[in-house]
Fold this protein.
Amino acid sequence: MNTLIKNKSLVRISALMLGFTVATGVLSLTGCAAVQTSIAKKDLDVQTKMSDTVFLDPVSPDKKVIFISIRNTSDKNNFDINTPIQTAISGKGYRITTNPDEAHYILQANVLSVAKSSPTAAEAALNSGYGGALAGAALGAGIGAAAGGWEGFGYGGLAGGLVGAAAETIAGAYVKDVTYVVITDIEISEKVKGGVVLREDTKLGRKQGLSGSSSQTSSELVDRKKYRTRIVSTANQANLEYEQAAQPLTAGMVRSISGLF
């Protein structure tokens, strides 16, 4: 009996020693990762991408009249691109009007989101295009899951908790790889001589026997053709704060939108 108790005690001690050894190794790796991140992400990296290319036909100077309507439905009400966009476009020889009827171009934009996110989520939002869903990203607790493999000894929870908590503390104390993402949907209407036929397909809910549901197409003659695209701008840096990211993100959005004209 005494031998059995001693053996169990040795197993427990070995498990704890293994747990602390692995924990120490993980903390060392976390520290190294933090240093690597601080070096690799020391400079601010701002990128602005457009989901679809828009080509506007050249017009004579007398037609360079534009109506601009920019909304911000994100939770950052201090993110303003309206004023700098008007300044940038007027600097290209366009006259800004408050009357949409006299405008040759109508520029409408909606800032959908200004938030911390991940590069993967930003790419997914870009790929979904105008009106597409805003993608989110979830962070996994890989260290705790890996430590759970010790459960056969009965100490997996303890070791995993120690490793996870310590790694989180280290990461939080040293370096965070932060990405801010701005997602904006753009619609440009251009006045067309003679008008353009707008077709809209509608699926009806009623069934037609065994042939399935029916649909109908409606047509309308309008005096403007429309272009739609989505612009996603990202700012990435170690320990980046919103106040540091706001101005470069604004500049990227302004440069991309005004570059369409």
Notes: The chain has one domain: 2-258. The helical segments are 2-40, 82-90, 119-128, 142-147, 156-173, 242-258. Residues 2-258 form one domain. The beta strands are 45-50, 65-72, 95-96, 105-116, 177-207, 213-238.
